[in-house]
Amino acid sequence: MIVTMKRSTVAGIVAVLVSPVVAWWVTEEITRSSMLTGPDLDYVMHPVDLSLAVQRGIGITATAILLGALTLLMRDRRKGILAGFNLLILAGAIVGYAYAVFTWGSIGANIGVGLVIMFGTPSFAICVLLAVRGLYRVRRRSEFPQPSHHIVILD
Prior knowledge:
It is a single chain. The protein is mostly helical. It has one domain. It is built from 4 helices and no strands. It has helices spanning 7-31, 52-74, 81-102, 111-143.
């Protein structure tokens, strides 16, 4: 079975897949100067051990891919396609931010993790549900186009 997709659909899927990486990288870059370091820190999850240069390379590459995918996605004229994928990209960004928070070292309780669980989980669920509903409507609308309301007068 051969599946054909529009270029903008592929761009949207790529944007959704790289958005967590971009969110993780931006969060790490912004908070790097204020992060605690030391052997006595508590972790909810230990971060992947990457050098600073590798992190920046991954982050810059993912950002470039995201910008290119968004450019292709914005060229699509189908009503609602951008809104649906934007919600999925936001959901991906929530996942990337959550990963960054979960891998921060802390002394004692990591309050940020609790806040991410309390607010990030429902936000993620709402984004995904609204995006699926919106993209389903776009697909249904493109499969069954509405009749034209133009009046044609033939001589």
